[in-house]
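User: I've been trying to design a sequence by hand for this structure and keep getting stuck. Would you show me what you'd pick, starting by listing the structure so we're on the same page?

Assistant: Good idea, let's start from the same input. This is the structure you sent:
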């Protein structure tokens, strides 16, 4: 067993983050391949930034089921490419209109709006290309389920649907269930898919175990957003690497505006507990998933 697998969470995460950066560099179109500007903009938007929380969740779920790391690399890359596309489009003037992402100018600022649109489109296509062209499971039917899983999680019944509700909710007062519905889709669906895809790369879990793992993904997905709302209201722009205070500026309903900061933190703590409870019975194989739940809730950026 490599040392990093036995080591503390920080070294486990940084070994995977730097290894995964090389995976992405290899899988993305090379910058000198035509059309160069589009390919350079795709690389600009994906590489050298981000916490890589979704890939880490896929790696941790893969460890639980002794998955082949090469297979998890592909599943994790597909999820991260969808995430990167969503950030590029979300930052555009027709959506959140932001100029800073991952500590650098957003894609449409560094390049232009048309390029940013095409970057998002191309990253999304590449994600599905990867899932289709690499063997991720010994069973074709399982691999097809994985492709469908990511399609549903990122489409109108997942992330894009959540984003549509988000855009529609500006200036409105949502109820707590409405806010939860929006965030389970906008942010939670892809995080949940990352856990499931990592697990599908290895030995099959039974339906009860898969249900527990999925509940874990659902809880950390929502907790991620609750913490994001708290950080948006409390942290500064340089710590976050994106513009802080955007939610209030844009009059968006959040857990902080709806519940207050204290109750939002309490809610994150409850989701954290539920996530850990869902893993009870998985033993030491779920160690990295537990540590990721801790990171998601306790993070400061
Ligand atoms: C454009 C279809 C479409 C969807 C956009 C996810 C999303 C939907 C928009 C991002 C807006 C946002 C700031 C949402 C809050 C939660 C979130 C997804 C934050 C960014 O994810 P991190 O913190 O980012 O994992 P890094 O940069 O670390 O990868």
């Amino acid at each position: 067993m490599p040392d990093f697998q036995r080591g503390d969470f920080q070294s486990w995460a940084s070994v995977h983050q730097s290894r995964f950066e090389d995976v992405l560099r290899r899988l993305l179109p090379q910058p000198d391949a035509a059309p160069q500007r589009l390919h350079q903009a795709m690389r600009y938007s994906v590489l050298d930034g981000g916490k890589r929380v979704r890939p880490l969740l896929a790696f941790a779920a893969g460890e639980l089921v002794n998955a082949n790391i090469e297979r998890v690399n592909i599943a994790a890359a597909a999820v991260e490419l969808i995430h990167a596309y969503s950030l590029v489009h979300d930052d555009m003037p027709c959506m959140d209109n932001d100029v800073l992402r991952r500590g650098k100018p957003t894609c449409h600022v560094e390049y232009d709006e048309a390029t940013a649109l095409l970057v998002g489109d191309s990253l999304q296509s590449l994600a599905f290309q990867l899932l289709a062209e690499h063997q991720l499971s010994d069973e074709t039917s399982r691999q097809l389920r994985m492709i469908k899983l990511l399609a549903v999680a990122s489409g109108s019944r997942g992330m894009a649907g959540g984003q549509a509700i988000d855009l529609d909710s500006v200036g409105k007062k949502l109820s707590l269930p409405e806010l939860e519905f929006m965030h389970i889709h906008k942010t939670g669906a892809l995080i949940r898919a990352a856990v499931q895809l990592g697990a599908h790369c290895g030995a099959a879990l039974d339906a009860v175990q898969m249900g527990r793992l999925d509940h874990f993904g659902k809880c950390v997905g929502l907790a991620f957003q609750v913490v994001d709302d708290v950080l948006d209201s409390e942290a500064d722009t340089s710590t976050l690497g994106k513009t802080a205070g955007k939610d209030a500026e844009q009059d968006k309903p959040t857990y902080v505006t709806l519940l207050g900061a204290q109750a939002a933190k309490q809610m994150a703590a409850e989701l954290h507990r539920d996530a850990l409870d869902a893993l009870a019975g998985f033993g030491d194989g779920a160690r990295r998933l537990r540590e990721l739940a801790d990171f998601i809730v306790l993070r400061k950026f």
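That's my pick for every position. To get oriented when you compare it with your attempt: The chain is about 70% helix and 0% strand. Strands lie at 100-101, 104-105.
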